[in-house]
Amino acid sequence: MKFLPLVQLTVAAALLVAVAGMACAGADPAASTDGGLSSPGVTDDQVLFGQSAVFSGPSRELGREMRLGIKVAFYEANQSGGVHGRQLKLKTLDDSYETEYAFHTTKLLIEKDRVFALIGAVGTPTSRVASPLAHDAGVPFLAPFTGAEFLRDPALDNVVNVRASYYQETEEMVGRLTEDLGITRVAVLYQDDAFGADGLEGVRRALASRGLEPVGASHYQRNSGAVRRATSEIVASNPEAVIIIGASDSVATTIEFARKDIDPVFLTVSFGGGKALAKALGRDGDGVYVTQVVPFPQDVGIPVVARYHAALSSYNPNAEPGYVSLEGYLAGRLAIFGLEACGRDLSRECFIDALHTTGVIDLDGFQLQYGPDDNQGSDRVFLSMIGADGKYRQVEKLAGAK
């Protein structure tokens, strides 16, 4: 991770140059420079969105896949003439899944690039520093790739979540463990930050509602991959099941180490699951369960998945469908819905209001619904399992401990 200080210095320097440039020119960072239109990022022929996400380091595939899905949705719309005559553009900056960099990259997108909205942020700790910046600037914060509970606060009127929360994912895990298999000894290994703490609390709540508590809990440092000590503590608790709240590389390493001594049921949340996890696990992936928050990306019987496949193939014939890029595609489609609802007279206020007050938003079979005190569109949690061939399968129940 020796490259990180250089990334930080580069981002910070760029921000200082941008702010200094506006000051020297006598410009007001909040003033519109879009030809008289009311919202930054909007011109006669374009709407600019911004994405601060992880594009380098251990979790880079999450950011790359989210970006891919958003771009596929935008490409699909642009090929049909855009939205009300405007082409959709996406500006991305790498925050390396680190909070300090996310703060700077988000400020750059808001103050220098003057994006219309932020879309597809990746991660709980990074969203925790980015979302207040967006809120204070009145910038829509759309479809972050996190199930963090703090983003479900109805007071965050600029936030529009697509996915179910981590509390809902962990409730599904504990429900399936106790009901399908009669398992009561559950341990939790979690990332030591806001993401891991949120997942841990979700597991504790789900267990407590059943008169249970974790038999063991241990943590590791974000972006480090150093999970051996934490895994040893989990092994010592002799669990029947282990729920891992972490990124894919750490999930894979934990399972590899733990299976040398114990053979419980392993489960992880959507953030840790995806193509990167299956690839990292290899043969160790057989029987690992992952809760997902979007439909099975190979089920073209679902209209939105079929459209996603067609658009993905047109945009990049070599790209493989996956859960994360499908979520990015849904995020892009939701953004397009909001733009379409506002017509040519586009503003951030109209965009947010359209998403929050429309009622049911049907994205070709994947339905979202918001309300005055509900900024989360979907409550659905899907259960998937990695097979011996390294491929995901959607399942209804846990098949049994290995």
Explain this structure.
The protein has twelve helices and 14 strands. The strands form three sheets. The protein has a seven-stranded mixed sheet with strand order 7-6-8-9-10-13-14, with helices on both faces. The chain is 42% helix and 16% strand. It has two domains: 4-10 and 36-164 and 302-369, Response regulator (Rossmann fold), CATH 3.40.50; 166-292 and 382-395, 3-Layer(aba) Sandwich (Rossmann fold). Helix 5 crosses helix 6 and helix 11 (323-342) packs across helix 12. Residues 1-37 have low confidence and may be disordered. The relative contact order is 0.14. The two termini are 36 Å apart. It has helices spanning 4-24, 60-79, 99-112, 124-137, 166-181, 194-208, 228-236, 248-258, 275-281, 303-315, 323-342, 348-357; strands spanning 46-53, 87-94, 117-119, 141-142, 159-160, 186-191, 216-220, 241-245, 265-268, 289-292, 360-363, 366-369, 382-386, 392-395. By secondary structure, the chain is of the alpha/beta class.
